[in-house]
Structure formats: structure tokens, C-alpha cells
UniProtKB/TrEMBL annotation:
Main function: Catalyzes the interconversion of L-alanine and D-alanine. May also act on other amino acids.
UniProt-listed PANTHER family: ALANINE RACEMASE, ALANINE RACEMASE, BIOSYNTHETIC
Binding site for substrate: R132, M305
Organism field: Vibrio inusitatus NBRC 102082
Protein name per Swiss-Prot or TrEMBL: Alanine racemase
Length: 364
């Protein structure tokens, strides 16, 4: 037997570069803040940032992620999308040239009271209707004034907001959010940003000076009803493993924990070395598609920690060691997500540290 590695995530950096180029074409007048939070949506924080040559800046959610980027040699601007969580983070932002969002009074107070060696680049976040983070429009001017007067804040200020429903193409809230953002910042000179993936793809009037692509950069659609490949983007991740057993199953016999699937015919069951311990969702139901030797076969029986089982069919000639793809170019993660009742975002982000990342390019 040749040496096989189970549960490998191949990350195609050519696909990543293709997607970034396409994003620049789609938002030709905007700069691109590439969102690499949550370990680059499961694709590897540093490796994604290193290969994302077309990105103008990076967005992360945690200060630890920003510091990892700096420690990994990334010198482009880095923005904390939710801002800092405590005043003691401020000197760290200054020392590492990290930009911050300000979305609440506590952050504003901390900035005003800090003694810093140099000013911080601040993006003032407006709540335009999502009601998660941000300053309400009626208080926006007051925040702008205080930030303008604060010696710790670099000028000009920058302005941002976030859509709540831009993945629903006919939801009127998106237009209302754009109008509100535009009107409230009409007299501001600084750069603006509101669009993440769904806004970039569906609303060119939301692009402003900066767009903030996350999921679409990884070749996964932000929309529930179409896959990124239909929009010209290429999946960056392929989750692979292989068969570690092929077993005969007789009609009437069941497979796996809880015996929740029973075969109606004599068949062959393939056991694949991937499970929820790798981040493959345990909730994946019977019938969820899996590729074995590039052929779509149904998942049957409950997903266990290290393995899952598929119905290869009575005539299968698949052998131990044969390759399997859980999602990727030939099986969009969006399709798997629909079976599981979640979104592609969650599947790619939830891979565990046991999965071996392998960085590849297009084979020629
Ligand atoms: C995560 C995030 C993004 C990227 O969102 P996608 O839908 O993955 O493109 C953009 N902006 C903010 C503030 C975020 O938190």
C-alpha cells in the first residue's frame, strides 16, 4: 500500500488569484479589503494572505489574527472589523500598524483617554439597519466630531457599515441601507465601505471606495440558490480523503451508529476516512452527495468522528485507497451545505486542525 494521508484540504492558490482578479473587475473603482478572519475561512490565514497578491488590505475579527498576520510577514494594512475589545489593545494596534473599527461609545471613550505614540486609523461604523454593531445614524455626527477632535485618531476618518440581507436579492432593506449610508456620509471626505460578498455581486451602487470580500474570494457563493462557479468564481478548497474499507452489505442490513439507514438491496459500502473530528458535519443526512473516484454516491448511515459511509452500489469496483472528495470543484460545498441545512461559510470554516492543508496550483 502506498502512503495515503486522510482528510486533506487542497487549497488552490491559482483559484484564489483568479477570484481576486474577478473581484477587481466586478468592482473596478474600489480597493479590495480581503477578509481573512477565522483562519482565512478555514483556508489558512497566512498562506491566503501571502497568495492574495491583488488584495489592498486585510480584514480580521480578532486582534490575535491581526498579530499573526504581522508575525507572518504581512505588511499590507490590516483592519479589525469589530474594533478592539479593551483599552489595553490600543498600544498594540499602534505598535503593529493595525486599523480599527469604532462602533460604540466604550471604544470612543477609550480612544479619547489613551496616551498613544501615534494616531490610529479609524473606520466609524454606522448601524444602517442590521442592528448588530454600529452607531445609529442620528448619533453619527456626534461621533464624527469627537473622533475629529481626538488626537489619537488619524485623519481623514473612514466610514463603514454592513448589510443584513444583501444575500436576498429582492429584499428592500439593502436599498434602504445604501441610501441611509450615502446620505449620512454625504458631507464626509473619508473613504467608505459597506459591501461584503453579496453586496459586491448584486449591488454595484454599494461598492464605494472599498469592498470587503470574504466568502466569494474563496470561491463559495454567499447566495443560497446559486453556486459560485455559476458566477465565474472558482472553489479554492477541495476536501479529500480516501476509502479505507469496501464491505459487502446484504439487503435488510443497516450501517453505522444508531443503525439509521438500512439497505433495500445487496450492495457495497465504502468507508471513507473523514468524519466530524475533521469538520465534516455530523448532521449530514442520508443521501448527501460524496464523490468516490469522481462518481457521486450517497452518504448512508450516521457520520462518525473519523469515518463516514457511502453506498457504492452493487456493481462498484472501487478499492481501498481510492480517492474521495467531500467538496470542491466537482462537488460545490454549496450543494453539500444545502443537504446539511447550513451555508458553505460554515462548512469551510469548521475544518479542524487534524485536516492537513496542502497548497497547490493548477496542474498543467
Ligand atoms: C466577515 C465580514 C465580511 C466578509 O463577509 P462575506 O460575506 O464573507 O463576504 C465583510 N465585512 C465584515 C464587517 C465582516 O465581518
Amino acid at each position: 500500500m502506498s502512503r495515503l494521508k486522510a482528510a486533506v484540504a487542497s487549497i488552490n492558490t491559482d483559484a484564489l488569484c483568479h477570484n481576486i482578479e474577478l473581484l477587481h473587475k466586478q468592482a473596478p473603482n474600489s480597493r479590495l479589503l480581503a477578509v481573512v478572519k477565522a483562519n482565512g475561512y478555514g483556508h489558512g490565514l497566512i498562506e491566503v494572505a501571502k497568495h492574495a497578491e491583488g488584495a489592498d488590505a486585510f480584514g480580521v475579527a480578532r486582534i490575535e489574527e491581526a498579530l499573526q498576520l504581522r508575525a507572518g510577514g504581512i505588511v499590507k494594512p490590516v483592519l479589525l472589523l469589530e474594533g478592539f475589545y479593551s483599552a489595553s489593545d490600543l498600544p498594540i494596534l499602534v505598535a503593529n500598524n493595525i486599523q480599527t473599527v469604532v462602533h460604540c461609545e466604550e471604544q470612543l471613550d477609550a480612544l479619547e483617554q489613551a496616551e498613544l505614540e501615534s494616531p490610529v486609523v479609524v473606520w466609524l461604523k454606522m448601524d444602517t439597519g442590521m442592528h448588530r454593531l454600529g452607531v445609529r445614524p442620528e448619533h453619527y455626527d456626534e461621533y464624527i466630531q469627537r473622533l475629529h477632535n481626538c488626537k489619537n485618531v488619524a485623519h481623514p476618518l473612514r466610514y463603514m457599515s454592513h448589510f443584513g440581507c444583501a444575500d436576498e436579492l429582492d429584499n428592500p432593506i439593502t436599498s434602504q441601507q445604501i441610501e441611509l449610508f450615502k446620505n449620512t456620509t454625504a458631507n464626509c471626505t473619508g473613504e467608505r465601505s459597506i459591501a461584503a460578498s453579496s453586496g459586491i455581486l448584486s449591488r454595484s451602487d454599494s461598492h464605494f471606495e472599498w469592498v470587503r470580500p470574504g466568502i466569494i474570494m474563496y470561491g463559495v457563493s454567499p447566495f443560497s440558490d446559486n453556486d459560485a462557479q455559476q458566477l465565474g468564481y472558482r472553489p479554492v478548497m477541495t476536501l479529500r480523503s480516501h476509502l479505507i474499507a469496501v464491505n459487502e452489505l446484504k439487503a435488510g442490513e443497516s450501517v453505522g451508529y444508531g443503525a439509521n439507514w438500512t439497505s433495500e438491496r445487496d450492495t457495497k459500502i465504502g468507508v471513507i476516512a473523514v468524519g466530524y473530528g475533521d469538520g465534516y458535519p455530523r448532521m449530514a443526512p442520508n443521501g448527501t452527495p460524496v464523490l468516490v473516484n469522481n462518481r457521486k454516491v450517497p452518504l448512508v448511515g450516521r457520520v462518525s468522528m473519523d469515518m463516514l459511509t457511502v453506498d457504492l452500489g452493487p456493481d462498484a469496483s472501487d478499492k481501498v485507497g481510492d480517492p474521495s472528495v467531500l467538496w470542491g470543484e466537482a462537488l460545490p460545498v454549496e450543494e453539500v451545505a444545502r443537504y446539511v441545512g447550513t451555508i458553505g461559510y460554515e462548512l469551510v470554516t469548521k475544518l479542524t486542525s487534524r485536516v492537513i492543508p496542502v497548497y497547490t496550483k493548477d496542474s498543467i
